[in-house]
Structure formats: C-alpha cells, structure tokens
Amino acid sequence: MSGESVETVVVEFSLKVGEGRLNAKVEVPAGHTNVTEMLPIIQSLENAIIGTVAQRSEEAGFPVSCKAGCGACCRQMVPVSIFEAQGLSEWIRSLPTEEQKALEARFHQTLLALKDKGMIDRLVHEDWLFDGETAEKMAIDYFRLGIPCPFLVDESCSIHPRRPLSCREYLVTSSPERCKDPAKNMVAGVELPLKLSQALYRMGSELEHDRRGWIPLVFLFAWMKSGADPGAAYSGTGPEVLRQFMQHLETSPKKT
User: Is there a domain that residue 2 lies in?
Assistant: First the structure.
C-alpha cells in the first residue's frame, strides 16, 4: 500500500489453534484492497499464532532454539506463494537501483550454483511434487547442496520482517547444530496445528489451476519479469478479502 492514510475497520474473529483458540482483532482497510496488500496483516496474524505455539512449547520445557545467526535452515528450498512473490517484487522495485542490481546478481549466482548441480532441471520438472517420498528426497538433496538463500547475509535473514510464511513456520527446539543436516540428525521441530501459508498456496493453486500455488523463492526475479498481478484476483474491501482468505484456511490439524 502507499504511504497515504487509509481508513480502516476492526475485524474480530477466533481461530482454533490446536486444542485452544486464538482470539484475534485486526485492522483492515475499509475500502478496496487485495490479498497481496493484506500480507502485512496476514503476517502479523501468523506471528501471533506462532507466538502462542512457541509459548506453549516453552512452558512444556521445549523452548524454540531458532535465533539470528543460525542460518542452517536457510539452505532449504523455500516455497513462496505467488502473492508473497508479488509483495517481495514490489518491495524490491522500491529499492534504489544499485540495491536492486546487487540483489539480482545474488539471485543469478544462486541459480548458476543450482544449475551447476543439476537442481534447476529437477525443480522445473514438477514430477517430484506428486508423492511425499519424492518431495522429501528433493528437499533433502536441495538442502545438502549447501547453497544459501540469496537473502541470507552473515547467516541472518536480511528480509526478516518480510520473510515468507513458510520461513516463519519452520521452528525447532533442538540445538541449532543439528540443523546442519536435519535428515541425518535428530532435529526436533515444532508442530504447528495451523499454517497460514497453506491458505495462500490454495488460493494460488486455484488461480493458476496448478498443483502447487507457489514458486521456489530462488525463481523470484524470473517470476518478476512475468508482470503477473495475482493479488487482483482476490480483491474487495478489507473484511471481504480477509473472509476470502479465511475460506481457504484449513483449521483442522493435518494427520501424519
């Protein structure tokens, strides 16, 4: 959104989070907006959910060990919804030209490194999405390449306030040292009973008529060149867009 003053309305609702409930109160635009412009509100809601779950984990004796400087998890393949891709694209275009060029160069070097390892072809051909075992192998193979996210600087996320929901949702209580190879080591993850990223993926999948509804973050600059405006497909007043988002949110925990 622009820096102009926007009239807002307060929306109150309750979400089932595991065995409990999160009572939320959010300010949303009273006038016309879309799901991409609503991302800061969705991110704040996600932070509240994660904060609630993290507090319960700590009270149970398992505090979250993730912190700035332990960027091992930032070698994973990061799924980013097309709406978050749009939001990041708009932010990047707002940066000074030199900063944009520096970021683009980092993304280009990352893609070259992935191509050199044969990973780009595997990512583009989406057969690996069709079953959990193949998807897990892809995730492990990608991670073991050790290629950092282009946004990782000095082992910390340089876009932390804007980071994708999938990044926010990845939390562990075990030692950060174990994250250097989570497939090999005993990494204790925090199970989130509610992931807002899934709603955005469903919306993207519905819009683009594909299985995924997201892109690998490393393809962000390539995606930017498409000029796509997915947010416009889910638009209306703030309460209406929030309702559309909630309709795509699966509130029951997934069984494993």
Answer: no
Residue 126 belongs to domain spanning: 8-225+234-247
H or E, element range at 14: strand 8-17
In a domain, residue 1? The reply is no
Is the distance from CB of 22 to CB of 14 less than 8 angstroms?
Answer: yes
Per-residue pLDDT of the chain (256 residues; tens, 9 = 90+): 445 678 999 999 888 877 778 888 999 999 999 999 999 999 999 999 888 888 888 888 877 877 776 777 888 999 999 999 999 999 999 999 999 999 999 999 999 999 999 999 989 887 777 778 888 888 889 999 999 999 999 888 999 999 999 999 988 877 777 767 776 767 777 788 889 999 999 999 999 887 788 999 999 999 999 999 999 999 999 999 999 999 998 644 343 3
